[in-house]
Amino acid sequence: MAIKAPRRKKPVRTSKTLDEKYMGGEPDWGNQEPTMEMMVGAYNWYNYFHNQKDHAKAVRSFYKKDKSKFQLLNKLPDWRFNHVLATICRMRAKGCSVPQQSSDWFDESIQKLFDMGKEVVEAKKEEVKKTIPKVSIQERIREQVGNYIAEIEEQVDLFADKYKSDFNMYDWLRSNDVKAQQSNAIADYYRPLLSELVLTEAGKDPDLNEGYKDVSKKQLKSFIEFVQMLVDDAATWGANQKTVRKTRVKKPQSVSKQVSKLKYQSEYKELKLVSINPADIIGCNQLWVYDTKDRKLKKFDSMGPAGLSIKGTTLQGFDPESSEQKKLRKPEQILPNVLSGGKRILSKLLPDINTKGTIPNGRINTNMIILRAIK
């Protein structure tokens, strides 16, 4: 099976001082027909520099475009994948040929893994027949995320060909109706790559400099912007989906009457923000609002256990001594923390912003996005 060469060389994450002095760089013999001695050297190199998790990832990644096989390999634990299998997958992925003897051994060994994956699937089916159906949520999410990432990786490969793309992550997540947890997992998957690219741009890591030596500064900058878009849009979509779920709570009639005259901004496309259901404000202990016109982030703390309430278009029951508002210079960096941060992050959010704080007046208008209500 013809495999397209990867978009980049993965840098070795260990020191290059003594290790590479004696072991050499990552094997790559191009179109040259390798000898068995060369293959043994490659086996030793990957066994030394890569761990068990790296071996498993190399084999699974080799089949990421074949969803059925990729899913079967995902059924198996990492220890099932040895460094010999991983080496052959890496060399083939780089466009290098392998001896016929090694190729025959690989085909036989990888087929055994596929058979093991099928056995796991069949065993689970039998278990479902004998017992009460129990769906493993984590397993299902992991498979879904793996399938989503396989599709996104195709877009990354297309980008790496010309270092430009019309792919819009936020629209893709919407069209595929990706759930919040899966979207956040996708963001987590690409954060290490983003950190690696940013560190490469700084030029202070010799390993990364070597790994990206064929990528120009302009291409690297475009690559960073593209991956940053993947991470930011996935995180934003995940936060927005959590917001949407909060609006599905049944509300007493009195709550509806309280918020019936409230005017607010339902969506702010520039920062991909959506307002929560204003009914969630009633009885909450803390409320976060963002004024899109003045770029001010507002925090309201309730005065007592009854929580906050609304009268007309004005917030009632907030404590002026602990409530505060500050203007944001870079809202795109601060607001994601408001949407997803825990109590500790939220408590430090406004104090860490180096702008003058003032007391908000409590009026809500059509320029304000209702970000978050905490019970």
Sum up the structure in keywords.
3 domains; 4-stranded antiparallel sheet; two-stranded antiparallel sheet; elongated
Account of the protein in words:
With 375 residues, this protein is of the alpha+beta class. It folds into three domains: 130 residues, no CATH class; 81 residues, no CATH class; 121 residues, no CATH class. The strands form three sheets. It has a four-stranded antiparallel β-sheet with strand order 7-4-3-8, with helices on one face. A two-stranded antiparallel sheet has the order 1-2. Strands 5-6 form a two-stranded antiparallel ribbon. A hairpin with a 4-residue loop joins strand 3 and strand 4. 26% of the residues are buried.
Short description:
By secondary structure, the chain is α+β, with helices and mostly antiparallel strands. Helices cover 52% and strands 9% of the residues.
Topology, element by element:
Layout: H1 19-23, H2 36-49, H3 52-62, H4 67-74, H5 83-93, H6 100-130, H7 137-162, H8 169-175, H9 180-202, H10 206-211, H11 217-246, H12 253-259, E1 267-268, E2 273-274, E3 286-291, E4 296-301, E5 309-311, E6 314-316, E7 324-327, H13 331-340, H14 343-349, E8 368-374
Antiparallel strand pairs: 1-2, 3-4, 3-8, 4-7, 5-6
Helix pairs in contact: 2-5, 3-5, 4-6, 7-9, 8-11, 9-11
